[in-house]
Amino acid sequence: MELMFYDTYERRLRPFVPLQTGAAGLYACGPTVYDYAHIGNLRTYLFGDLLRRVLALNGYAVNHVICVTDVGHLTSDADTGEDKMEKGSRRTSQSAWEIAAFYTRAFQQDIAALHILAPAVWARATEHIQEQIDFIADIERNGFTYRTADGIYFDTQKLERYGHLARLDIGGLQSGHRVDLRDKRTVTDFALWKFSGAQQRQMEWDSPWGRGFPGWHIECSAMSTKYLGALFDIHIGGEDHIPVHHSNEIAQHEACHAHPPARYWLHGAFLNVDGGDKMSKSAGEFLRLDTLVERGFDPLAYRYLVLSAHYRSPLTFSWAALDAAQTALGRLRLAWRRLPDGGQPDAGYQQAMQAELNQDLNTPRALALMWELLKSELPPATQKATLRWLDQVLGFGLAEWTPALLEVPDAVQALVTARDQARQEKRWADADTLRQAIESAGFTVRDTPAGASVQR
Ligand SMILES: Nc1ncnc2c1ncn2[C@@H]1O[C@H](COP(=O)(O)OP(=O)(O)OP(=O)(O)O)[C@@H](O)[C@H]1O
Ligand SMILES: [Zn+2]
């Protein structure tokens, strides 16, 4: 069955043709580990996970690389401002190295809780400094760099197709730009290597150009080449990467290899906050996955919510929407547990579901077909087998919900305790939300004079 993706580079749906039969190389720009991830960031990784699972469903062995940006991402995308890691270090009074390790672990825990499959490679920028220096040296040798007082810059005017991915209007950008360019020649030029200068930095290295640190974009060029080759299949990220980060990655690659690094570019749309702005670390409400859990939600309810929107459509977060997703997940788990084993998937539904997923990852339609399946006249065991097959992509882990696991897990017990507390304090709305969380975890709760009792 044909697999189609919307490719940002060509701005059209294209059939996926791998470089190597049966395999797919997938590179995802990862977190900047100076703080916790918010659920907006996590939406982007859920999109990557979905893509990976759909590729696997189509028989591809996926080589998935996620980078970890632990140096060089400045507070402004125009290469000014402070390194986010050094800033995070001041905020927490821990070293930049400590916070990188801490937030990388926190991120890995979040993605595990969301059932996002771990990549084959976690590529940390600070562990690939030599590769980045070598890449910059190649760009320099090919004549695409110049030196300023604060670093080595990429001369974007030397590339005819600079900014093609974003369809950038360079002339317009240049003339509309009122801010001081410092020593940059063109507004779109960007740093490949920044000098430490007089500033005392925690993360810095020697290089042929002087002591300093790599620019943000070069890490992805160097690490994707190392792990996936100079040309690989698919590069993904959030839509904010289109005009700057991915445009610059492509430029670096073109300067060395005369072609972009990847053959397909897919971008996930934002999670917005009420009012339409993107959820971000710097502005608005910062919701972590843990915040959701503290309010009684199952992390997988957020997974459900994200899958209920197409990855290229903006999604506005609301507690009501998350609540509805949690209820739907609870119903799904209940349906799963009631269905008997022993059937075979229904070929008609499989085909219809895969057709939707293969059409640019249409999860809202796949979920609609799932509910249709559960209401259908098909034998219950067939329904369950079909659901099991679909769950390879949805990733709810339904098969782990077998009645064999009858013990009350700690996480559920914690919800029960929190609910008891809420009831004692007459916080009825909180108690209700917690009850729903317990139920969507597959348990029922009954209040007895001796306290709440919980059972499957
Ligand atoms: N609101 C959002 N919705 C979806 N994806 C997002 C959102 N905000 C950031 N992302 C994506 O999250 C990924 C990780 O980004 P990173 O850790 O560098 O955070 P960031 O972009 O600096 O976030 P912020 O703007 O909140 O500081 C990127 O691929 C980015 O595109
Ligand atoms: Zn990147």
UniProtKB/TrEMBL annotation:
Recorded catalytic activity of this chain's protein: tRNA(Cys) + L-cysteine + ATP = L-cysteinyl-tRNA(Cys) + AMP + diphosphate
Superkingdom of origin organism: Bacteria
GO MF term list: cysteine-tRNA ligase activity
Motif ('KMSKS' region): 278-282
Residue ranges of domain Cysteinyl-tRNA ligase anticodon binding in the record: 407-449
Amino-acid positions noted as binding Zn(2+) in the UniProt annotation, renumbered to this chain: 29, 220, 245, 249
Intracellular or extracellular location(s): Cytoplasm
Cofactor(s) this protein requires: Zn(2+)
Cofactor: how and how many bound: Binds 1 zinc ion per subunit.
Enzyme Commission number, as recorded: 6.1.1.16
Tagged with keyword Ribonucleoprotein: no
SUPFAM superfamilies reported in the protein's UniProt record: Anticodon-binding domain of a subclass of class I aminoacyl-tRNA synthetases (SSF47323), Nucleotidylyl transferase (SSF52374)
CDD domains membership: CysRS_core
Residues annotated as binding ATP: 281
Domain tRNA synthetases class I catalytic: 16-326
Short motif 'HIGH' region, span: 31-41
Keyword entries, A-Z: Aminoacyl-tRNA synthetase, ATP-binding, Cytoplasm, Ligase, Metal-binding, Nucleotide-binding, Protein biosynthesis, Zinc
Cited NCBIfam families: cysS
Subunit comment: Monomer.
Family (UniProt): Belongs to the class-I aminoacyl-tRNA synthetase family.
PANTHER family from the UniProt entry: CYSTEINE--TRNA LIGASE, CYTOPLASMIC, CYSTEINYL-TRNA SYNTHETASE
Protein name: Cysteine--tRNA ligase
Organism encoding this protein: Duganella dendranthematis
Gene name of the record: cysS
